[in-house]
Amino acid sequence: MSANQAAQQTPGAAGQGTADDRGTTFRAVEGGNQMQSGEKLLVEAYAFIWIVVLVFVASMFRRQRRLDRRIDTLETALQKARAKSAGE
User: Fold this and answer.
1) Is the pLDDT of residue 3 over 90?
2) Where are the domains of the chain?
3) DSSP readout, the chain?
4) How far is C-alpha 25 from the geometric centre of its chain's CA atoms?
5) Cα within 13 Å of Cα(74), Cβ side
6) Cα 28 to Cα 31: distance, rounded to the nearest angstrom
7) Sign of CA dihedral 39, 37, 45, 50
8) What are the CA-CA distances from residue 88 to residues 76, 79, 81, 84 (Å)?
9) How big is the chain by its Cα radius of gyration, in Å?
10) What is the mean pLDDT of residues 50-78?
11) Contact between residue 55 and residue 47 where contact means Cβ atoms under 8 Å apart
C-alpha cells in the first residue's frame, strides 16, 4: 500500500479531518489538463491592460480632434456674426 493510499484511509486524512487539517495537506488530483503557466497568465493580464489603455488613449485623441473641430466651427461662426453686426 502506498503512503498516499494509507493517508487517505487513516482518520484525520485530507477530506476527513478538520478544516485546518485539509488546509495543510496536499492531495494530488489526477486527470484534467487545466494547468496553465503563471507566466502565461501574467503576460496575458499585462497585454489586456495595455490594450485597454491604448484603446482609451485613442478614444481620447478622437474626442479631442472632434472637440477642436467644433471649437473652430464655433469661432468661425462667431467671427462672421461679429463682422455682420459691426457692418450693420
Assistant:
1) no
2) 1-35, 38-88
3) --HHHHHHHSTT-TTTS-HHHHHH------S------HHHHHHHHHHHHHHHHHHHHHHHHHHHHHHHHHHHHHHHHHHHHHHHHHH-
4) 32
5) 6
6) 10
7) positive
8) 19, 14, 11, 7
9) 34
10) 98
11) no
For 80: left if phi > 0, alpha if psi spans -120 to 50, otherwise beta; the answer is alpha
| Single-letter amino acid code for the residue at 57 | V
CA-closest candidate to residue 13, choices 2, 1, 26, 28:
26
Q: Show the cell assigned to 74.
A: 464655433
pTM of this prediction exceeds 0.90: no
Q: How far is CA 57 from CA 6, 16, 30, 44, 60, in A?
A: 60, 54, 46, 20, 5
